[in-house]
Batch of 2 targets.
Target 1
Amino acid sequence: MTHPSSDGLTDFIPAERIQELLDRAPATPAEVREILAKSLAKRRLELAEMAALLSVSDPALQEELFAAACTLKKTVYGNRIVLFAPLYIGNKCTNSCVYCGFRAENRQVVRRTLSDDELRAEVLALIAKGHKRIVIDYGEHPDYSAEVIAHAVETIYATKAGNGEIRRVNVNCAPLDVEGYRLMKAVGIGTYQIFQETYHRPSYAAMHPRGDKADFLWRLYGQDRAMEGGCDDVGLGALFGLYDWRFEALALLAHAIHLEEAFGVGPHTFSFPRIKDASNRALDPAYAVSDEEFARLIAILRLAVPYTGMILTAREPAALRRRLLAFGCSQIDAGSRIELGGYSEASAEQDLDKEQFRLGDCRPLDEVVGELLEAGEIPSWCTACYRRGRTGEHFMEFAIPGFIKRFCTPNALLTLQEYLSDYGSPALREKGAAVIAAELAKLPEDAGKSELLARLAAIEQGQRDLNF
Ligand code: SAM
Ligand code: SF4
C-alpha cells in the first residue's frame, strides 16, 4: 500500500483551543438552554457551544440535555434503526497499535486472510440471516492494497442466493491514497470510514509507536483524500479510552467542521468505539470512559452535529445499547462475529486469540430485530440513497423538508417487509406487521402512501428491492 508522505499537511485540529475550552467554568442553565434550542433548530454547534454542554455537571441540567438529544433524535431520524454487520477479511497488520489484538507484535493471534471462496462463504452466511449492509474490516498490511480490497467488494456484491444479497459494502481499512479511493468509488462502496483513534497527538504517538499508522497527519487527511477520490460518504471516529473523552468529542466536531469547510459536506457518520479487552494486552484504565460519561458523549455528539448518523457497535452490552439508542444513535450492528470466518465457521464461544477485541452484544440478528420491534422501532436495511446517487449531501435527509417522510420511512418499511417475508419466524412477522400498520396509520392519505401500499403488497407477492 502506498504511503507517500504527510509532508506539507497542516494539523486542522485546534488542540490548544480545545484544551482551553475544556478548562472553562461550568455553563449556566440559561447558556445551556440557549444552546439546546439551537440544536433543536437542527443547527450544528460551534466548538465553544459543545464545550459548554460538556461542562454541565448538575444532574437536573444533565437530564435536560439528555431529553433534548432524545427529542432531536426523534424529530430528525424518526424511529428507524439501520442494521448492519461487520465482516473481517484480513487481520495481518504491520502496525503496533497498543490497544489492538491484531498489532504486529502479538504472536498469539491467529493471522488469516479470507480466500475468495472463504469470503463468498461468509457472505452467504450473512445473507442467509437477512443482512443487506456490511462494513468490511482489514488490518494494515501490504497484502491489502486498494486493488485487493476493491476485488473483495466486487466479490461480495456478486455473491447472491435466492432473494439474499449485500446491497451496501462500507469499508474500514487503513487510509489510502486518492487513486485508491477512486477505485473504491468505482466498485461502489458505501461509506469509507476510518477512526483517528485519538486526536491528542502525544497520546497518538504513544499508542502508535511504529508502522505507517504512526503518521498522524496521513491518517487525519484520510477522509479528505477519500472526498477527493469521489467517496463523499465518509465516517469519522475516535477510540474512547485513549485520552480525555471530552477532548476527543471536541476534536470530532473540529474534524466535521474541517470537512464542511473544505468540501461543503460534513461526515456521513460518527463512530465512538470504547476500548475493549483484546488478546494479550493489559488495559490502562487512566482514560476509561464510564457508562454515564459514554451516555453524555453520545447525547452531546447528537446535539452538536444533528445531521450526522451515529453508529453504536456491538462492543457495548445489550442493555446499555437499548438505553443509548434513544440518545441519538441511528445505526447498530447485530448478529456480529468478528473472528475471521466467524459467520460460516461459527463456534459457540468468542476466542480472543482470533479477534481484534471482545464483543459485548453477541445476540443473533433476529433477536435484535424482535427487540427493536417490541420497542416500536423500525429495523431498516435501507440502501436506497447511495444506490440512487443521493450521496454527499448529508444535510439532505435532515434539512430537506419531508425527506424522512418521502424516502426514509417508506424505505425502512419496505426493507422490513422484505426481511419479514424472507427471514421472519411467524412470531416475528406478527410483531413486524403491527409496527408496519402503526407506521402506515401515521402517514397522510396521499399518492405517496398509495404507492407505498402497492409496493408493500408487491413484496408480499415476491418482488424485491423496491425503493424510493
Ligand atoms: N486496521 C484499520 C485501522 O486501524 O484503521 C482498520 C480498522 S480496525 C479493523 C477497526 C477499529 O477497531 C480501529 O480503528 C479501532 O478504533 C478499533 N479497535 C482496535 N482495537 C480495539 C479494542 N481493543 N477495543 C475496541 N475497539 C478497538
Ligand atoms: Fe492494525 Fe488497525 Fe489493529 Fe492498528 S487497529 S493494530 S492498524 S488492525
Note: The mean pLDDT is 92.
Target 2
Amino acid sequence: MCGIFGVFGHPEAANLTYLGLHALQHRGQESAGITVSDGDRLRTERRMGLVGEAFDRALLRSLRGPYAVGHVRYSTAGDSSLPNAQPFCVEYAHGAVAVAHNGNLINAVDLRKRLELDGAIFQSTSDSEVILHLLARARELELPGRIASALKQVEGAYSLLFLSENQMVAARDPRGFRPLCIGRIKGAFVFSSESVAFDLIGAEFIREVEPGELVVVDGKGLHSLHPWTVPEERRFCVFEHVYFARPDSFMDGRSVYAVREALGRRLAREHPVPADIVIPVPDSGVPAAIGYARESGVPFAMGLVRSHYVGRTFIEPEESIRHFGVKLKLNAVRQVLDGKRVIVVDDSLVRGTTARKIVKMLRAAGAREVHMRISSPPTTHPCFYGIDTPTRSELIASSHTPDEIARYVTCNTLKYLSREGMMEAVDEVTPDPGPKRLRVIGQGYCDACFTGRYPVEFAPGEMSSLRRVIN
Ligand code: 5GP
Ligand code: SF4
Ligand code: MG
C-alpha cells in the first residue's frame, strides 16, 4: 500500500504535495518522494523515512515549479531501499516522465523478464518501474497514448500519477482496486489517494477517478480517456473501508467513518455478549467500537491508550521488534478495566500476535472477561493487489478456526463479522452525494483476502515470486 498525490498548475506545487503526503502518511512510512517540473525540466527528491523527516525547508524550497507528484511508500516483503522509493523518473526519446504508483502488478515478473531479454536495464526491484519501460517503448506520439499502450499490457491493481514537463496523467486500473480522487484549489488541479489530503490543503473535492479512466491535465485543462473498450467489473478493495483508509476520507462514494461505524453496528447484531464496557483497539478499531457500543447499548470506554509517537507496529519487519512494538504503542487503563467484562473491538486480525498481547494486557489490568470482536471476516488469504498481508502460513485464520484462534489469543470468546455482514454494512452507507445505486449487495468489491476469490487470476508459481516485487 502506498499513497500518491499530485498538483498541476500551482506556484507552490511542491509545498502542497508535501502537505498532501503528510495527510497520506498512514498509507506508507518507509520512504517519501516528490518530483517537480518547472515546465522544462523534472527534478526528483526521494528519501527513506517519514515525510517530515525526508524533506526539510531548504530541500522543499529548492523544488520549484507549478507541477508536482509525490509518493509515500509502504514497507513490504520486498526491498526496502532507496532505489525502490518513488516517484520513478526517467529520460527517454520524448523527454522526461515520472510515475507514482499505488497498487501491485501481478504480471510484473513476466513483463520484466521479457523487457530484460530485450535489453532493458532496471534500477529497482519494484514492479512499478515496468510501467515506465513499457511507456518508453510505446510508439504513440502523445504521452496519454503511450501510457494507455503501457497499461493495456499490465494486469493487476494500480492507481497512478504520471508527470512530464508540462502534462499530468492520472490513471486507475479497470477494476478500480485502489482509490484516487480529483480536487481543485485556486484554478489548479490536485490528485490524491484519499480525499483527506484535500481537507488539509483546503482543496475542493471534485470526484473520484473512475476505474479504467485516464485523466489528462495540461495547458488546455482536464479531459479524460477510456482506453479499455470492454469494461471490467469494478473491484474496489473492501479492506480500504475496513482498515487502510483514514476514517475522515471519502472513497467509493462513501464516508469511511460511516462504513466503519456500520461494520461495528452489524458486528453487535451478529455477535452480542453480556458485558460492562466496549473498548476499541486504537486507532483503527475506534469507529467500529463506537458502532458496536451504540447498537448494543453497552457503554463505550477507552480501555487502551495509544502512544502517538510510534508508527504502525505491523511495519516492523523483525519479529522481535514487532512483539515489543505492541507495548510501545498500547497500554491498558486499570481505572477503566478493573473487574469488568470487556468487549474489545478491532478491525482485523492478521497474525493474532497483537491480539494476544492485548488480551494479556487487559487481563493484567484487571479485566474479568475479554470478548474479542473483529469488524471484518477472518483474513485467510494474502493480497496481491498492493497490500502487504503476510503469506498464507502466517495468516492465523488460514489454518485455524475462530475458536482455536480464541484459545491462542487467550480471550473468552472471539467472533468475526460475516462476509455478508461486511458487504451489507458497506452498502448500508448510502453513497453521498447521489442516490443509492441499485445493485446486488457486496458486488463491485474485491474481498479476496477474506474469501480467496481473486478477481485477477495469476499463474500458479507466480505467487512466491510476486512477493519479491510487490509494491
Ligand atoms: P494481529 O493481532 O493480527 O497481530 O494484528 C492485528 C492488527 O493489525 C489490527 O489492529 C489491525 O488494525 C492491524 N492490521 C491489519 N492489517 C494490517 C496491515 O496490513 N498493516 C498494518 N500496519 N496493520 C494491519
Ligand atoms: Fe483489498 Fe483484500 Fe482485495 Fe487486497 S485482497 S485488494 S486487501 S480486499
Ligand atoms: Mg489496528
Note: DSSP finds 17 helices and 23 strands in the chain.
